[in-house]
Amino acid sequence: MPKTPAPAPATPNTESSLVPATSRLVRSLAVATLVANIGIVVTGGAVRLTASGLGCPEWPLCTPDSLITTPEMGVHGIIEFGNRLLTFVLAAIAFAMVASVWKARSARPDLFWLSVAALAGIPAQAVIGGITVWTGLNPWVVGLHFIVSMAIIAVAVVLVNRAWLSRSRLDTAAAPLAGRTLRPVVWAIAVLSAITVILGVIVTGSGPHAGDHGAARNNLDSDLVTRLHVVPVYLLVFAVAVALYLVFRRGADRRLRLSLVIFAVVLLAQAVIGYTQHFLHLPIVLVALHMLGASVMTAAAAHVVYTGLSRKVPGAVAGAAVSGGPVSGAEVSGAAARG
Ligand code: HEM
Q1: Residue 185 included in any domain
Q2: pLDDT tens-digit series, residues 317-333
Q3: Is the pLDDT reported for residue 262 higher than 80?
Q4: Cβ atoms of residues 206 and 221 within 8 Å
Q5: Residue 165 contacts residue 21 (beta carbons within 8 Å)
Q6: 288 lines ligand 1 (CB under 6 A)
Q7: Which of 132, 203, 235 most suits a substitution to test ligand 1, by most atoms within 8 Å of the C-beta?
């Protein structure tokens, strides 16, 4: 007698609900957005640290008569123009990201608007980059260019987190993972990280790596601003120690503990790089590493804030699927009906 196939074991709700609510494409593009935005900080750093900031002395053209670099502009022209070209890589990723969530924009407005924000950062940075060239690398404009990149990285971190959210977390009106005592500490980590970065770009503006040998400096006392730059770092070490004590003593959620451990490790590594580059008189490799460290630390801080303080995704439709390919109207509206 032919055997009747045994019924497939019912998948426990908890297991199926751990599945991310987006397609692999959407999740990959979100990660690519984050990685590309960190990457362009480092290549921008290479422009500054090789004194190629005016390798293309005009913007949006490279030279008064050429859109692209010319042999006369030499290696500096190639480096500066190469960095300009990377904008198109960033733009391609950002457009693909928006397109991948386009049809699900009413079900997942969070993913849609975060993707749009990452895309909007590109023309904003192109214009600030242009003003940087027009002002002959004014250190305050160069600093603003760096800080806007940090803001885009923070947006990309939220985008990655939202893209990887499981269906169950989308559906649950969860309280923030950080308890009442921890919340102000998480905010302190966010604010102190921002202050550290802002003071960092001011130190750079007073230092030797101007991006071009003739570029103006902010004329502040480098040693003094470096000392000021380090004050919020010590406060951060204290804040993260308090946060770690609270989460481990109270057995807080694993995701929150992990985000704080990652932040602590990145903070300490960045502080070691900072001191080493300072005492070795700013070798360009370490300065580039410090720029990478600042980007990764900004991402880690944004992750702590997101993990500790986020609640249910505002406006998201419970159970909504984001396929990344052409999502049928029925799929999205069916999800909307369930919500
Ligand atoms: C641990 C957290 C830290 C963060 C997030 C951080 C962040 C930054 C940032 C964003 C910049 C500007 C980069 C740029 O404009 O391209 C910078 C520059 C700088 N930082 Fe830090 N920093 C940290 C720790 C330190 C420490 C502990 C020192 C020790 C002295 C230090 C020394 C410097 C120096 C000397 C510069 C100027 C480099 C230059 O002239 O190009 N930093 N930092």
Answers
A1: yes
A2: 655 667 654 333 333 22
A3: yes
A4: yes
A5: yes
A6: no
A7: 203
